[in-house]
Amino acid sequence: MSNVNWRTINIDLLDPESPANFATATLAPRVPSVSASELQSLASRIKQLLRGGDNEGALRGALENPPYGGDSAAKEVHLAAVVEILQSIKQSEMSPMLSKIYSSDGGVEALDVLMKYLYKGMSHTSQPSSASTRSMSPQSTGFSQIHSRGGGEGGGQAMSVLLSWHEKLVEIAGPGSIVRVMSDRRTV
């Protein structure tokens, strides 16, 4: 008999249905690449619609063309445009606008893209910048409190807007939108 330690054999390699036997990259859908210049022109068209008072058109334009295949800089440009649109829409206009988008063709997908942007925007406004990490004070609870006084756009105000949109979006599209966004491998 040979000296084989049976405990070290990786039996997953012997199972044809094991995740070790196929590339996990095949799970992500193929998306076309998007250049930063294309997103810059899209952002300028969206801003023109926004300046013209067509908030719904600007929001639809941003949600129908998510930069799934863009690099991180291009995605940041598009995120900034979407957040600017969301901040310019009044709270009383949120629900009717979301209902109108939801009932239109492709509305569920558009609201799922909006949910992705809400989560991405919340993650960006909650990350402390290098300037604000200097003003952190430890609390007795073990958490740190970030003092964000003066300067900047006000991350608290942006977070409040994003949370308001999240509330209205879940009210219109339901919790299924959250599940679809969390399980989708395409990122904005």
Describe the structure.
The chain has helices spanning 36-51, 55-64, 72-88, 91-103, 107-126, 155-173, 176-183, and strands at 136-138, 144-146. β1 (136-138) and β2 form a beta hairpin. Residues 130-137 and 142-152 have low confidence and may be disordered. With 188 residues, it is mostly helical. It has a two-stranded antiparallel ribbon.
Q: Which key features would you list for this structure?
A:
188 residues, mainly alpha, two-stranded antiparallel sheet, 7 helices
Tally the helices: 7
User: Strand order within the widest sheet?
Assistant: 1-2
Please give the radius of gyration in angstroms.
22 Å
Low-confidence stretches: 130-137, 142-152
* Averaged pLDDT: 83
The fraction of residues assigned to DSSP E strands is under 5%
Tell me how many strands there are: 2
| 3D shape | elongated
Give the helix level as a range of percent.
40-55%
Termini separation comes to: 57 Å
How is the biggest beta sheet arranged? Answer: 2 strands, antiparallel
Helix and strand succession?
Answer: HHHHHEEHH
The structure class reads mainly alpha
List the topology elements.
Elements: H1 36-51, H2 55-64, H3 72-88, H4 91-103, H5 107-126, E1 136-138, E2 144-146, H6 155-173, H7 176-183
Antiparallel strand pairs: 1-2
Helix pairs in contact: 1-2, 1-3, 2-3, 4-5, 4-6, 5-6, 5-7
Short structural description:
This protein is mostly helical and 188 residues long. It has helices at residues 36-51, 55-64, 72-88, 91-103, 107-126, 155-173, 176-183, and strands at residues 136-138, 144-146. It contains 7 helices and 2 strands, in the order αααααββαα.
